[in-house]
Specification:
209 residues, alpha/beta, Spore Coat Polysaccharide Biosynthesis Protein SpsA, Chain A, two-stranded antiparallel sheet, 6 helices, 25% helix, globular
Amino acid sequence: MIAGAVLAGGESRRFGRNKALELFQGVRLIDRAVTNLKALCDPIMVVANDLTPYADLDVLLVRDVVPRFGPLAGIFTALYFSPHPWVFVRATDMPFLNLSLAQAMISLTHTTPAEVIVLKKGENFEPLMALYHGHCLAHIRRCIEADRRQIISFYRSVRVHAVEESQWRRYDPEGRSLWNVNTPEDWQCLLEQGSKSEPDRSAGKALET
């Protein structure tokens, strides 16, 4: 079994207000993020500094162990409270998730000796479209203690299975699973493009291990 974690603790400084509560196609972003993971994970955790806005959600609400440290602390918190070794981590402002791609990533937890399974776009990791194992906890803790806030700062200390772009685009050709919202301009772009249908495409092959 895989736990799911929606990171909703960001301060949304560039956006100007809490993105998680914005309506997209009539549904709050936080609700979309939870629904996406519910098809794959149990339990679902929402991790945030302030949990008050999410009191109506039927999920496990978890306050950041290290407040206002950013998404790395959110991942640490999710792993710390997870009842399962693996946690699928997503940000609250990522409204699309290709289920076939996500299922293929989850299947890698049984076939690859890694502590991190993460998509890679070009030369860059996409650490908020990733699975993390509990073995990462000690390494993340050391980064937090050293005030290293970049998520991938602990990747060198663990085994990472990178899903290359040529592999994951067979499932998600447009890369919608990685769409996110940082600024009002991003939001407007999402509103304009997000109305397009998003078929759950799959090449019918497992991701390479």
